[in-house]
Amino acid sequence: MSTAPGTLPREQVDLSDFAGGLDLFLHLLGRLRLLLRAPVQAALWHQVQRGALDFAWLAAAVGALAGFFTIGTVGVGFGLGVTVGVHVMQVLVLGQLAGFACALLLVAGPGTAATFELGLMRQQGELRTLRLMGIDPRDYLVLPRVLGFSGALFVLSFVFQLAAVVGGFALAALVTHLSFTQQIDALVATLKPAAFLVTGVRSLVLGAVIGVQVCDHGLVAPFAVARMPQIARQLLSQSLVALVLVHGLSALLLP
Length: 255
Hints:
mainly alpha
């Protein structure tokens, strides 16, 4: 079988038992106990740090601006009042935009970097080295990355939402006639605690899906350094599909 120069076809990869993303996910369900091991915990924390903490400031900035512009436009610009403005901000920014924006941020940054890292490890024979040492690469490489992306998206979404409330309300109080306490009172009056539970579960699930897609592109699909732009586009397009599906299913199953 002919392949592009520098590309690793599936049969040349050490992990012949990898059938794809679903196979990776099903394998991980039975290996969660490995989180008790220090190397796996260290790799998990590294992925959360690289995915969430390094981008928290950007998520906070975007969240604050999104909250401010939503309240300013709906509540003041359209003249609909603070209650309507805050309610629209809660539904649109906190409920939907937080997950969309943070997921795209995670894929474009840490997701692409992790795909490239795993692909290079595969090309350089590091996966075979792990197996010779008696270590399943899925346990050391895939498990912490999938759970790390899940935790990272959860943290990023929380930071985005918190910044949208605190930063958005503060900016609106500075620029418009709406006071900070007015906006907080309107939020408390319209807030549904179950909505935050839904967004939290959705972030965890979507982050895990993104992590599986990253590992699938890095460890299973044909990889070549020259194809990284195409691989990045495929990862982004698949993540967008997963984003829409997860948000749609959560709206149906978790109203």
